[in-house]
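so i finally got all the pieces together for this one. its two components total, 325 residues if u count the protein bits. some of the lines might not be protein, just check the labels. i wanna see the whole assembly predicted at once instead of chain by chain like last time, that was a mess tbh
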Amino acid sequence: MSDESAEGPVEIIQCPVELDYTYTAGQATTRFLRGVGEGKLLGQRCIVCGKIYVASRGACPIHGVPTGPETVEVSDKGTLVSFSIVRIPSENLSVDPPFAAISVLLDGSDSTFMHVLSDCPLEEVRMGMRVEAVWIPKEEWTTSLKNITHFRPLDEPDAPYDSYKEHL
Amino acid sequence: MPDPTQPTETTEALVAPHSLRYTYKRSVGPIMGKFFTALREGRLVGVRRSDGSVMCPPKEYDPETAAALSEMVDLGDSGVVTTWAWVKTPRAKQPLDHAFAYALIQLDGADTPLLHAVDAGSESHMSTGMRVKARWKDERVGHITDIACFEPAEEGA
């Protein structure tokens, strides 16, 4: 409470909701995170449609079947398929607004991935932009997506719309 | 470490703490605002209803007639326990770190009860009808937690 509020009538109260969980990643996400711990982005393939999911939940959401046993490494480069500029601050955010929350289609993957784009003026953020993951130093890697701090633009021509239109 | 690109029969699942924090603020309005302002001053107030009875905690409108209410009434910080439940093993965010009772407390001068914690030491010291008194915090901000808890009071206190 500020000194100012101590003077006048109380108009607002803080009533935070704090929920403490223990999250168990499960087999599929664990496999993905162990890969991240070695600097690899791993996906799994649907045995029906062949689509590769990164990070796989262990099943194809279209066909409802378990993904195949093999693990497929995909690139840490990809195409920005959608984005939102976040301008409203929140105590929960680890990045100061304004920033771009982006959906990335990694090369070799058929599913998109949410992350943050930095090292890029906000007015230049656009669909089709080529981007790459920025990793923290290898000696600091853990089995966490925090190994990737953000994505940054690649000096490449934009991807054609048809290459990502299924993933908007 | 096994090669993560190779299939594994079973992988021991990773486990991590996951904390959700919703940093809500609530606008309390003029009547509850007076209640919280009084708490910051170490006082308790209620509001007079259409039938003359006193409601604490106060609301802006009469729960039966829906009439707008405005007359604040000063109340004591002692009262009577009307019902209670013993909490043997409190969780981290509950008001006390040792066993206590959640109780409905009808403050002297009020006709409705207020929910708060009673620090009675043991369940055998709790009874419906017992008198309790607020234990105020030294540093108050205008929140229900400005009362740390209630504690058993002498008869007539």
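Residues 29-152 of chain B form one domain.
The CA atoms of residues 49 and 63 of chain B lie 9 Å apart.
anyway lmk what u think
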